[in-house]
2-C-methyl-D-erythritol 2,4-cyclodiphosphate synthase
Amino acid sequence: MRIGTGYDLHRLVKGRRLVLGGVALPFEKGLDGHSDADVLVHAVCDALLGAAGLGDIGDHFPDTDARFKGVSSLLLLTETGRMLKEKGFFVVNIDATVLAQAPKLGAHKAAMAANMATALGIDAACVNVKATTTEGLDAVGRGEAMAAMSVALIIEEEARDSRGQGAG
């Protein structure tokens, strides 16, 4: 059994689409970044890569690589899942939290979880998404940025339980 954590933060800017968990959200600003800047998916990728001892998102999908310019972060997550499977790991569960002052995300959390589960080929019940504000404090609270953090539990494929939960 292995556990990894992930964290990401991106600045909010005008003129960009806001994407969280692969869901395009109506909002006056979007996250600035090389890919679609989906902080939620980036944090999940980092948690999974860390749990597997495979470094971090920047090692595999650097912002200096033109192949990843504007790409959907769900594609990065799919590739992360492939790397884990190749190393013999099975995703048991993911728990992630988005930190954002606005917009309200409650109505979108299930779709975000479903998108990430689909990208990884796991049951949506194995992915949990939460959202919170920072009560007006820091860059997130001032509406200048959004952040996300995640924890992931993985096991070696041989240890996979008979219920068939997780990846694979």
Observations:
- The mean pLDDT is 94.
